[in-house]
Design a protein that fits this description.
The chain has six helices and three strands, in the order H-H-E-H-H-E-E-H-H. The chain is mainly alpha-helical. It is globular and about 60 Å long.
Length: 149
């Protein structure tokens, strides 16, 4: 075996830091979602649909939620079985499908929203409002980073 490989420590790697931060934030949100029998991925879909005024095509849902097609298909089927969403072919292109929240889905999001906002308040209290805003700005900027060529 040869010597030490020169690179930053494992603990200081950006992907690991982001994973630790994601896990810490989800530890706050998971119990709230479990109270409503929702997975993280199902909540992402419901949130994406609640954020819009109109139905979304499935491709748009996938892009907004960062879910892969097969997983999204299963999640949409379960949410539809639960009566939380509905779907139909797009009027001008029957090959595409759009989805939206049902009244029951909208009511569920409205029930969870204050609890979710309270958790955001907890995070802001921990970090401070300015640092939380800065964190969100930095994460948005990081998400736009393109690979080197």
């Amino acid at each position: 075996m040869s010597g030490v490989i020169e690179m930053r420590s494992f603990e200081q790697s950006l992907p690991m830091a982001l994973l630790r931060a994601r896990e810490a934030s989800m530890r706050l949100f998971r119990p709230m979602l479990a109270q409503h029998d929702l997975t993280e991925q199902q909540w992402r879909v419901l949130r994406a649909l609640a954020a819009g005024e109109r139905p979304l095509e499935i491709g748009d849902v996938a892009a907004r939620t960062l879910l892969l097609g097969p997983s999204l298909a299963r999640i949409l089927a379960r949410l539809r079985d639960q009566g939380l969403i509905d779907r139909r072919p797009v009027a001008h292109d029957q090959r595409r499908v759009e989805v939206w929240l049902t009244d029951e889905g909208r009511d569920l999001v409205a029930t969870i929203a204050p609890k979710s906002e309270a958790l955001y308040g907890h995070i802001e209290q921990h970090l401070g409002q300015a640092r939380f805003a800065q964190l969100m700005d930095l994460l948005d900027e990081m998400a736009k980073l393109e690979p080197q060529r």
